Every structure is written in C-alpha cells, then in structure tokens.
Amino acid sequence: MKYEAVIGLEIHAELLTQSKMFCGCKVVTSGATTVTPNSMVCPICTGMPGTLPVINRRAVAYTILTGLALNCTIAEHSVFARKNYFYPDLPKGYQISQYEMPLCRDGWLDIELKSGESKRIAIRRVHLEEDTGKLTHLETNGRSLVDFNRSGVPLMEIVSEPDLRSPEEARAYAEKLRAIMRYLGVNSGDLEKGVMRVEPNISIRPVGSTDLNTRTEVKNLNSFRALARATAYELVRQQKLVESGANVEQETLGWDEKRGVTVPQRSKEYAEDYRYFPEPDLPPLVVEREWIEELRASLPELPDAKRKRFEKTYSLNHDDAARLTDEKAIADYFEEAVGEKGVDVKTVVNWITGELFRYMNESSQSIEAVKIRPGALVELLGLVEAGAVNANTGKRVLREMFKSGEAAQSIIKREGLAQISDAGALDELAGNVLDANPSEVEKYLDGKTAVLGWLVGQVMKETRGKANPNAVRALLQKRLEERRS
Q1: DSSP labels for 249-304?
Q2: In a shared domain, residues 195 and 259
Q3: Which of 8, 31, 72, 152 supports an S-S bond with 67, CB 3.0-4.6 Å?
C-alpha cells in the first residue's frame, strides 16, 4: 500500500518589541549570553499572585501585520485565554494565549517547490501569546536551572492547516514565512538563537484517503535542515509501524540531531487537556477597523511582489530574482548598486550572487555586516569594465575589500595589480612563451586549437594574472598563425 504524508506546521516567532507581552520588562533576545539570568523580570512575568497583565500594543500591531501579509481575516474582537499546564519554566502554571477567538484566521501562503510548481497552503490562525522561561539541564549533577528572562516575551504562533505533503513542502513553507517576517521587521528569523521555532505535526494515510490519522509533533526544531530531516525520519518510522500492524501513538517528540532520530518526550495533549478558559484579568481585545486599514497601508513590498518587479524592471530570470529578494537587505543592496550611473545590471547580479555571496557564506556574514557598500562594488566593476584590472584580478581585489573595507583603487595601487595592456610588452611575453613550449605550438599547428587556452594561461602566470587576457589571446593567435605560414 502506498502512503502519503499529512503535515501541518506550528511556527512560534518571538516578536521584535522592546518590552514584554504583558509587562514593561525589557525583552532579552533568546540565546543572549551577556545578560545575567533572571535580571529582566518583574512580579508580572514571574507570575506573582495579585499582579495584573497589560497588553502590548506593538505586539498586537506586529501580529496584525503578519496576518495581513498572510491574507488572513483580522478579528476586530478577539480573546486571550489561560492555557493550563505545569512545567518548571512556566511560573504561573498557565500560559496566556489565544485559542477559540484568535487575532487572525483563515489565511493562505503560496509556496514554490524546486520543480517550479506552486502550491497554496491554508493558514488556520495567527495568534498572540507569551513565551515561557528557559531551562538549562546540567549533565554534571542532573539538576536543571531556570531563567525567567524569556518569560513573558511576546510570542506569535502561526498554525497551518495539514496541507503539506512532503519534507520539501514543509521546508519551503517555513522558509517563506521566515522571509515574510523579516521583510515585515517583526522577527529576526534566527532559528539557531531560538527566536523562531518550528514544530511539525506529522501523520500518514493511504494515498486517496481523506482521513486525518493519529499524529505526532516534533518540538522546537531550530533549523530548516532539522525540519526536513526530522519530518522525513518520522514519516518512515510511522509507515514501518503501520505496516507491522502497530499503532502510531499521539505523542510529542524531540529531535536528536547527532543520531538523526526522533525521541519520545511525553504523550501529546488534546485541547481539552489544557482547560482553556477566557483570561479573567484581560478584557476582550477590540481592534478598530481604521487601525487595521492603517496597518494594511503600511505593509512593505513583500518577497513575491519584489521578485516579480525585479524580473520585469531589471529583466532578471526567475532564479536570480528569487535569490536577490530572499532577504530584504540583499534586495536593498542590489537596488542601491544598480542605481549607480553607468553600471550594467547583469554584471552587478553576477558579482553579487557569485563572488559576494561566496565570501558571505565562507565567513557566515549577513549583507548588513559586509564592509563593501554598493557604491564601492560598482566602482570596482567599473575598473574591470574599463580594463584597469582583468576579471580575475577584480575578484582578488573584491576579496581584499571584503576583508578590510578598503577602496578598490587603493588596493590596486598598493598591490601593483593594474592590468598590463601594453601591446609591446605583451607581444614579447607571448613570443617567449611560444619559444619555451615548442611541443604545444606543434599541437596547435596540427589542429589542436584547445591548447591556445593553456598558452594564454602561461602568459597570465608570467604576469601574475595582471595581463589583459583578451589581448594575450589575440597576440598568441597572431604569432601562431605567422609560424604556420
């Protein structure tokens, strides 16, 4: 029997507010190591009796913006509820969240797969809640430490319908959501720091069936690679269980990255287990329609719209436009570069998506941290275009610019990298190379013209890459043809 995957994603995103969800304590980014544990806390976010929460307006605005970007209906009347469960990092014994009456509902997001196919994923709801504290487990003595700095940080949860059918689709959906949140400025998207956590709900069913079978949930995945691997593993595990006659248990799982397996954590709760009821200390959240429309008008150009504009305005192919618009900061960098006078768009695209991206990947730097500003890059490209340096030397100069931030002209002058274009000097070098390699000359004269590239390389080696390769090729061809006659 053939089975198909049924996957829904829950994505938790810490919002980039200055203060926490229900109090005035400063937000400390997850993963921060320079802040003293339990220093950014107060009676409200540590759950002291008799305290009263107050809703963070900016967190509400950020959630509405996200809901609008995801084509959701925004509720003018929503309700916060108490989600009751016990865990050491939850000081109140309940979490203030939303369930039956969320702020945003019934949205959708289009994703694109490697095959080029587009698919629409329905979004059940986008709601607001507060984050928990953080536990640190000590291997030395088996004890655990709790830090409440994260407790009460505004947390937005985006819940999809179970419309995803493969690990590839799950990853594409999560990556697209991350890009949108970064464009909106509501979340940094740093999965490794825990500010965005992905939790797939996974089940299988026979192909052709519409049933929703028992599912498992993998908690707190902190990379897209882990999402794809954990989902793929869990689908195989469930299929083996079903084919052996066993039942899939509804449970919450963790992901062991080193072993590449899911591991049981606890039985998965049902909604009724949380005993949701309206938060008595908070009134219903009423959002005026005028404010919603004001927020809608403030929406920035989102990734899909920007990609289509890049394709049309700059005549880019789909892949180049997608790579340049995946991050808003990269798109801004590109547009600033092509805004310079006398620059060829395709050349800018090739250098950004080629050499610059390579150096960024090697150093794990974001475009914001790159020392080469768009104008400096364009200056270098102009020098290459004018023949002041050849393309290979230009790449060498770019690497030095990337390291130091120094101007291209300064590097070229200091290192003596100016391109040699003097015909007399190059002609003499070409003759010397031909004299030193008679066997390669004979091969060329016998019709093996591919050897010309090797001969060009020898001249470039003699000049330490500073010769004009086109001029060298032309001079070598001329001298070889003279020898033929």
Answers
A1: P-EEEEEETTTTEEEEEEEPPPGGGGT-EE-TTS--EE--HHHHHHHHHTPPPPHH
A2: yes
A3: 72
DSSP 3-state of 200: strand
Q: Average pLDDT for residues 400-412, to the nearest whole number?
A: 92
Q: Which of 177, 234, 130, 134 is nearest to 9 (CA)?
A: 177
Q: Which range of residues forms the domain containing residue 385?
A: 301-415
pLDDT at position 74: 98
**Where does residue 427 rank: exposed (0-12), middle (13-18), buried (19+ CB within 10 A)?**
middle
* Strand partners for 202: 7, 216
Pairing of strands 216-218, 251-256: parallel
Average pLDDT over residues 402-418: 87
In this structure, the answer to whether residues 215 and 68 fall within a common structural domain is yes
Residue 188 tokens, joined: 């940094």
Q: Which residues contact 355 (CB under 8 A, 6 or more apart)?
A: 395, 398, 399
Alpha carbon distance 92, 168 (integer Å): 38
Show which of 234, 263, 295 is a domain's final residue.
295
> Is 322's pLDDT higher than 60?
yes
* CA-closest candidate to residue 183, choices 344, 302, 43: 302
